[in-house]
Design goal:
It is a single chain. The chain is built from 6 helices and 12 strands. The strands form 4 sheets. A 5-stranded parallel sheet has the order 4-9-8-5-7. It has a 3-stranded mixed sheet with strand order 2-1-3, with no helix packed on it. It has a two-stranded antiparallel sheet with strand order 6-10. The chain starts with a strand and ends in a 27-residue tail after the last strand. 25% of the residues are buried. The protein has 2 domains: 5-61, Alpha-Beta Plaits (2-Layer Sandwich); 75-206, 3-Layer(aba) Sandwich (Oxidized Rhodanese, domain 1), CATH 3.40.250.10. The chain is an alpha/beta fold.
Length: 233
């Protein structure tokens, strides 16, 4: 046994895993996957932790890795174009893509994840689950016309599906951020990103250095002033 803990998701569209354990054990698991031709190009993202942030190993077989309820979106049959973290950083720094077109980032994560951190001035449709992305896109598609749109998420699954859907809906200049936020942190200095990246384990969030970072506190609610009962002053 490799003494690994975490989550492995299996679906017809692929495999997704988030594992922790001794480095040699994790690398051994990845090497075994790469021995299968279907996973030969697997490029996992790595971060380090002093403790294992999972309590057990969980393996699930699902209809979709992350549910979108859009069966025509099948990344295995054709990926959307992607941009590397370094390219996105350069575009954001210069304020446009290499053709001079305005660049906008589109967060495809749930609202509570966005609240932990996001790219500066990102587009956030405040979705609460990924199945809400298709109708949100239809409602806001006109706002994205004539712009270069870079969709992003934690590790690259949701933003890939989102980019394919946007292209299917007729948006021409759409890309996914290769490897998501975690790869952006790994390969750049984290510029143009504010806050941390929410992760679904006991760390809760990591910063641009991929170390644990505190979640931003929720905005305090304004106190509700008491009102007098009817008929009394």
């Amino acid at each position: 046994a490799l003494a690994l803990k975490g989550t492995i998701l299996l679906a017809e569209e692929g495999i997704n895993f988030f594992l922790a354990g001794p480095a040699q054990a994790v690398h051994s698991f990845v090497d075994q996957l790469r021995a299968d031709d279907r996973f030969a190009d697997l490029a996992p993202k790595e971060s380090w932790s002093d403790t294992v942030p999972f309590r057990k190993m969980l393996v699930k077989v699902k209809r979709e890795i992350i549910r979108m309820d859009h069966p025509t979106i099948r990344p295995a049959e054709g990926r959307a174009p992607s941009v590397s973290p370094a390219t996105l950083r350069r575009w954001l720094e210069q304020g446009h893509d290499d053709e001079g077109r305005e660049v906008v980032t589109l967060d495809t994560r749930n609202d509570f994840e966005v609240d932990a951190g996001a790219f500066k001035d990102t587009i956030d449709w405040r979705i609460t689950k990924f199945t809400e992305f298709p109708p949100a896109l239809r409602a806001h598609k006109a706002e994205l016309a004539d712009k270069t749109v870079v969709s992003y998420c934690t590790g690259g699954i949701r933003c890939e599906k989102a980019a394919i859907l946007m292209r299917d809906e007729g948006l021409e200049h759409v890309y996914q951020l290769e490897g998501g936020i975690l790869k952006y942190f790994e390969e750049t200095d984290g510029a143009f990103y504010d806050g941390g990246c929410f992760v679904f384990d006991e760390r809760r969030a990591v910063g641009a250095d991929l170390a644990i970072t505190p979640l931003a506190p929720a905005e305090p609610l304004e106190p509700i002033q008491p009102t007098s009962p009817p008929g009394k002053a």
